[in-house]
Amino acid sequence: MVYSLDLRRKALNYIENGASLSETSQIFGVTTRTLSNWLQRQKQQDLAPKMHGSSPSKIDNDKLKKYIEDHPDSYLREIAEAFYTSLQAIFYACKRLKITLKKRHPTIKKEMKKKEKHTCKN
Known about the structure:
Layout (H helix, E strand, L loop, with lengths): L4 H12 L4 H8 L3 H12 L17 H10 L5 H8 L3 H10 L9 H16 L1
Helix pairs in contact: 1-2, 5-6
């Protein structure tokens, strides 16, 4: 949870006026550990909330999609070798892009085709 800069300043001013950390914690609804972190950050002149964001991906989404379109039968291992990365990185990139690489066994494909023919005739 990110606390506003205004709340941080009010809580620190309250502490500077002589209140204890536990008293300030109860009044402002934040933990004493958070207050002590704010006090340390105030000394460094950096009281603003830290920016949290996702780190950039190693794998370019467009290149991965293009590779999978060009090589639909490739395994994760082969894709990882092509992109010089790990299997896990490729797996999570595909998951992020909602790409499935499941292969069907040839016998299952034949059975599905048979069922389709029988349902189409009826």
